[in-house]
Write a structure and sequence with these properties.
Blueprint lengths: L6 E4 L4 H12 L5 E4 L6 H8 L6 E4 L2 E4 L1 H11 L10 H28 L5 H8 L5 H22 L3 H9 L1 H11 L13 H9 L1 H4 L14 H10 L3 H13 L10
Parallel strand pairs: 1-2
Antiparallel strand pairs: 1-3, 3-4
């Protein structure tokens, strides 16, 4: 019997969705991708999962949400090449590092990323609807006054929270750089879920060229300034190196 083909529902420009795409590609797991438009995605995802967030992976009629749970399921179904260290102590450390970047870094960088677009409706529409047609773009732009209010509330894009997110970037790079071992990896001597999660969560700042869905140019000046401000950090260069060495080619296949 043929192995069921996973279907990934995702946002193209999203570090949490990139984390799942990277795992699928790293494991050379053929899969179908269905790109969704932020805000317009809600009816589709809610009907399928009862909640509003992507990524979502559907395998043989079973859906899994949340990037960490999806990676755990992919590791169970496709253990080779592994992302989870076999040593129990190394596994615990790798999962702890991944959790830090998922829970602490990811939300703050999402807040910063979207804040750069909220004052630029046309740039926001181009980014959110990249790869979709002009009708979708204009529809999204028409709804932007309402969407902006929802995004601000959902992501906490307010002055005090945004200032705290910017102030915390240095500590995030400190944590990353402290974890890099002699091998160049965060745990042990090989690429793991820790490296994948940390590098993926930092893409809103680093924007490595191997990221398949970079925001359309020109990006808001605030994002270019952010990238330039942190490009000197060893952790920034580490993200570029990890992407160059391990991002690899896509395992996406056409939908049938």
């Amino acid at each position: 019997m043929a192995e069921p083909i996973p279907r990934l529902l995702h946002f193209r420009i999203s570090h949490y969705n990139e984390k799942v795409r990277w795992a699928l590609d790293y494991k050379r797991c053929p899969h179908v991708r269905q790109a969704l438009v932020p805000a317009f995605h809600v009816p589709v995802v809610r009907r399928l999962t009862g909640q509003n967030k992507v990524p979502v992976v559907e395998i043989a009629g079973q859906t899994t949400t949340d990037s960490s749970r999806i990676l755990a399921e992919l590791e169970r179904l496709h253990p080779d090449p592994p992302l989870y260290p076999s040593d129990p102590d190394e596994l615990a450390r790798a999962l702890a590092i991944a959790e830090y970047f998922d829970d602490e870094v990811g939300p703050e960088l999402r807040r910063i990323f979207w804040s750069a677009y909220l004052a630029q409706p046309r740039a926001a529409a181009a980014m959110a609807t990249a790869s979709f047609g002009p009708l979708t773009r204009w529809s999204w732009l028409l709804m932007f006054p309402l969407t902006r209010v929802i995004l601000r509330a959902n992501m906490g894009i307010y002055a005090d929270q945004l200032a705290a997110a910017h102030a915390g970037i240095g500590a995030h790079f400190d944590r990353l750089e402290a974890e890099i071992g002699p091998s160049g990896y965060l745990v042990g001597d090989s690429f793991s879920i820790a490296d994948l999660s940390a590098a993926a969560m930092l893409t809103p700042i680093v924007r490595p060229p191997e990221f398949a869905y970079l925001p359309p140019e020109p990006v808001p000046a605030a994002l270019d300034e952010l990238r330039a401000a942190w490009a000197h950090r060893p952790g920034f260069r580490w993200v570029l190196d990890i992407y160059a060495r391990h991002r690899g080619s896509s395992s996406e296949i056409p939908a049938t």
